[in-house]
Amino acid sequence: MSMSYFGTDGIRGTANSGHMSPATVLRIAMAAGRTCRAAGQRPRVVIGKDTRLSGYSIEAALVAGFTAVGMDVFLLGPMPTPAIAMLTRSMRADLGVMISASHNPFEDNGLKFFGPDGYKLSDELQLAIERAIEAAETNSLVKPAEMGRARRVEGAQERYIEFAKRTFPRDLTLDGLRIVVDCAHGAAYKVAPLALWELGAEVVSIGTDPNGTNINEKSGSNTPDIMAEKVREVRADLGIALDGDADRLIICDETGRTIDGDQLMAVIARSWKRSGRLRGDAVVATVMSNLGFERYVESLGLKLIRVPVGDRHVIAEMRKRDANLGGETSGHIILSDYATTGDGLVSALQVLACLVEEGGKMSKLCRAFEPVPQRLLNVRIRGGKPLANPQVKKVITEAQARLNGCGRLMVRASGTEPVICVMAEAEDLKLVDELVNEIAASIEAA
Questions:
Q1: Beta-bridge partners for 202
Q2: Quick check: is 200 in a domain?
């Protein structure tokens, strides 16, 4: 059954309207509160946010909704999404909520929900919340004496920094490494530079001056060229670019060449395979991962398991197979030994551990495989369902035939933005470009 509120990654929309209007957020909070709270104890919910201006309004609406149904609220302030997942478990909360639209522009905002185990909510729970949103509000309002309390938690950022640092090997240090970190003016603007510095690195920070409207603007993993330029300018050993809520990353080497999630997973897979840490004899990735990555994983004696786009699908398959490494080309990397969701900082620390252990340059470390030529184009749409258009279907079918089984083609609607993602890969780069351009043109004309 399709859902009206939840998409690929929680609930998302334009701030102060639609699903993200204060009135609707209030109803969502009340519905989530009465659906997810455990029986027999005082229910608790932790709330974090990124640096968007609209976060103030949404946070207030969430507090009103949760306290009205009898939940105690713990406000953590600006924190990375993985920190909220971790602290939901650590603080024994019934629910965790992150106010963020991730890599989207500041005009958007969203809600990501975590259960008491720190994992994102199942489809069944999301559907139950959707049904509860439409129920009468008076059915869940508690008596005045039973209303919840709200308070801000001091020291939450320090707790997350210590957690992240503990994932780095105790016998290693980042001494001697100059690292550029671009925090996208987002949720990790304080914690990421400090954690790297405390581990011994010389840190050059950019994207650490949020003003409420500049999150992801010409910064972070959306625009890794800014990080790369800074790396070359200060002659750093590498750069790390996070997105607005810091659950994903892009790294660049000392030359400024960007390194995507596939290459980063390859580095970690090789290291963990050698040390016997890799579980499940597999790496879980999505349909968007490069064919070259798949071949490399197989050369290690492992399987690459592909799932639909979205870290929820990756995590579900990892839990099913008891695998501890998975992720997406975009830089969502899930290391289940440490976290229940993607964590840009923790993933960076694992790659840095490999760099320190093996020595040498990042440019050598993160060139594990030669990617098969691939092109991804996001085509913005004005509405409707262009993928149902007969002419678009015809162009896609013809493109598939031209590949003749010697490459891959993916055309899908994004679950977080009004775009159609068109991806093709094959050894023939000219053919790849032609196919992507033809499909994109048909979508725009539909």
A1: 178
A2: yes
> In angstroms, rounded to a whole number, what is the distance separating the alpha carbons of residues 81 and 168?
19
User: What DSSP element (H or E) covers 206?
Assistant: strand 202-206
Model pLDDT for residues 300-339, shown as the tens digit of each residue: 999 999 999 888 899 999 999 999 999 999 999 999 999 9
Query: 214, 243, 258: which is the final residue of a domain?
Result: 258
In a domain, 1, yes or no: no
Digit-coded pLDDT (tens) for 34-60: 998 776 678 999 999 999 999 999 999
Task: Match 């005045």 to its residue by tokens.
Answer: 144
Same domain, 21 and 144: yes
Is 403 within a domain?
yes
**The two structure tokens encoding residue 339:** 């976290």
Closest C-alpha among 109, 136, 95, 113 to residue 50: 109
| 27 and 86 both lie in a single domain | yes
Which tokens in the block code for residue 29?
A: 């909070």
Q: Copy the structure tokens of residue 183.
A: 């925090």
Please, what sign has the CA dihedral across residues 207, 85, 346, 166? positive
Q: Do 101 and 10 reside in the same domain of the chain? A: yes
For tokens 């920190």, what's the residue? 83
- Structural contact between residues 407 and 433, judged by C-beta atoms closer than 8 angstroms: no
**E-strand spans in 270-406?**
282-286, 303-307, 325-327, 333-335, 374-380
Range list of H helices, 144-236? 156-166, 191-198, 224-234
Cβ 325 vs Cβ 315: under 8 Å: no
Q: Which residues are catalytic?
A: 102
Measured in Å, how far apart are the chain's first and last C-alpha atoms?
Answer: 27
Q: Do 11 and 146 share a domain, yes or no?
A: yes
User: Quick one: DSSP state of residue 387?
Assistant: G
Q: Report the run of H or E that residue 399 belongs to, with start and end.
A: helix 390-403
Q: What is the CATH number of the domain that holds 94?
A: 3.40.120.10
Residue ranges making up the domain that contains 104: 6-154
Q: Can you read off the two tokens belonging to residue 117?
A: 């185990």
Nearest to 327 by CA among 268, 407, 398: 268
The count of structural domains within the chain is 4
Quick one: 12 and 43 in the same domain? yes
Q: Are 392 and 442 in contact (CB under 8 A)?
A: yes
3-state secondary structure of 275: helix
Q: Does 54 share its domain with 194? A: no
